Amino acid sequence: MIQQTPRQTMVELDKIASKMAISNPNKKVRRSTIMADFENLRNSHESEPEYQAAVDQIMSVVGQLSIAPRLGQTKRVLKENGVNFKTKIVQRINSELEQYGHFAFGNSVRHKQNDAQVLGLYGIGLVNIDGDYHYFVGTDKGLKPSLMRAYRLRRLIPITGDDSQVPTLFEDLLAMMDVEFVRNGQYTVLPFPVKYLREYQEYQKRIATNSK
């Protein structure tokens, strides 16, 4: 059984603020700190020559900057010297810089796939609150700069058995919960068996396959 609750999802503002501060274009970072972080990245990817080449290119430019350049200035100079921040390798480098926590040339706050600070806003998830299982259905698109609303948490109550079976069964419910009319809250437009026919058939196929 699915029960509506007054609970809503909420972003972790402290983590978002921290990520934003790390990549603030006006932030000054000592050149020695920048070089040290890139050197650590280079040493941790010894088996990836392409990755190391990208790091070397960046370090050769950073080495010519002032003692404590601003991040925005550093990024601009890197672009002028051929560093493309849209390539997968450079994006990966930037993501790992962000994890170090000293600086980054961009942040992951608006990435479609993000970590704990957007839990409850993207995708479909299951959470345990005081022993009771709840789920949310968030957006399936990349996050926008402003959020219009939070998402309701709905409690999952087994009709038979106990809550221990919820995590196992939840995977099979995901396909049904991801249907567009469920995301929009249009639960009564058509009877469930009609709308869920395809998802129900797939569910039965999985059961048959797993029982072999």
Task: Please provide a written account of the structure.
The chain has 212 residues and is an alpha+beta fold. It folds into two domains: 110 residues, no CATH class; 77 residues, no CATH class. Helices cover 44% and strands 11% of the residues. It is built from nine helices and four strands. Strands 1-4-3-2 form a four-stranded antiparallel sheet, covered by helices on one side. β2 and β3 form a beta hairpin. The longest helix has 14 residues. It is elongated, with a radius of gyration of 23 Å.
* Helical segment count: 9
Beta-strand proportion: 5-15%
Question: What summary fits the major beta sheet?
Answer: 4 strands, antiparallel
Average predicted confidence as pLDDT: 81
Describe what is shown at a glance:
By secondary structure, the chain is of the alpha+beta class.
Structure keywords:
elongated; alpha+beta; 212 residues; four-stranded antiparallel β-sheet; 4 strands
Summarize the topology.
Blueprint: E1 2-8, H1 13-22, H2 31-43, H3 49-62, H4 71-80, H5 88-100, E2 124-129, E3 132-137, E4 152-156, H6 166-177, H7 180-183, H8 192-195, H9 197-210
Antiparallel strand pairs: 1-4, 2-3, 3-4
